[in-house]
Amino acid sequence: MRLTNKFKSWLAIGVTLSSLTALQGCSSSGSFSQLIDDETITLDITAGLNDNNKQLLLNNNLHILTNNSKVLLSGQVRTDVERNKIVAIAAETASVQQVYNQIRLGPPISFERASKDSWLTTKVKTSILNLKDIEPLKVKVITENAEVFLIGRVTKAQGDQLAEAARYVVGVDKVIKVFEYR
Asked: For residue 8, which of 121, 93, 79, 133 has the smallest C-alpha distance?
């Protein structure tokens, strides 16, 4: 299925509307427009992968997470050629400032492992809520095969504090910081 511009627009509107609740109370100006930009980048990368080689999406376990126009790619692919192609498509996508390649070589993780990873992500996000002087909406979390990836725009001290909180969550094997420091 080829994503048309009209479909992408409606999808972006849907994602944006569903995110309104999460943005309530967000104090920094520009957060809403940045959220739209980030969701658009993610959709554009997905469409680019779909247009280029649908099998890149179907045969692999790939996650695209965008924060402040910076893209984190994680998951598993079977070959280095596929990984390089995915990274190139992401890097060539309009408005992308930087691509963090955390794609691992290997077969896709099992459904059971993916379920455990979702639970770990929830536990890490909950631990972040308890941290002082950190806006949890400014940090995105994804877990892939017990590796926790943290992405966002924070100070160095906040980044260290976030990583430490994630590190103490039972079941986390590794924490990878993909922060933009201010």
From this structure: 93
Cα–Cα distance measured from residue 3 to residue 15, given in angstroms and rounded to the nearest whole number:
15
State the pLDDT at residue 51.
84
- Over residues 89-142, the pLDDT tens digits come to 999 999 999 999 999 999 999 999 999 999 999 999 999 998 988 988 889 999
User: b/e for 106-134, b at 16 or more Cβ within 10 A?
Assistant: eebbeeeeeebbeebbebbbebbeeeeeb
Three-state SS at 17: helix
Longest dimension (CA), the chain: 45
